[in-house]
Design goal:
Elements: H1 7-29, E1 41-43, H2 46-55, E2 65-75, E3 78-87, E4 93-100
Parallel strand pairs: 1-4
Antiparallel strand pairs: 2-3, 3-4
Length: 106
């Protein structure tokens, strides 16, 4: 029969598991469209980007993301728009990238 685990050891184990889970979620988030400037989400107008960003939940806590600021730069394929977001629950900051490329008219 083994002795019971000390409370401190159990707490450390839970904290390690939580850190590993956060790292896993952040790694998965970084692979999604919009997580980097190299893989932006295509939208028709900047207003659509803001709406999509607000509708995106925080990947860590599913909380509401608010837009703190935005930046834009012109590229040959359209305007690249970066929205800096902040979670209201866990206070994690992140950036979503969009490419504003208006549809061609016939």
């Amino acid at each position: 029969m083994s002795s019971p685990k000390r409370p401190r050891n159990e707490r450390r184990q839970r904290e390690r598991e939580l850190r590993n889970e956060v790292s896993r979620v952040e790694r998965l988030w970084s692979q999604l469209p919009g997580a980097s400037a190299t893989a932006p989400i295509d939208v028709a107008a900047p207003a659509v980007a803001t709406i999509k960003a607000r509708a995106t939940p925080c990947p860590l806590c599913q909380g509401e993301l608010t837009v703190e600021r935005d930046r834009a730069e012109s590229t040959p394929r359209g305007v690249l728009l970066a929205l800096d977001l902040h979670c209201r629950l866990c206070h994690k900051s992140r950036t979503l990238w969009f490419r504003v490329a208006p549809r061609e008219t016939n």
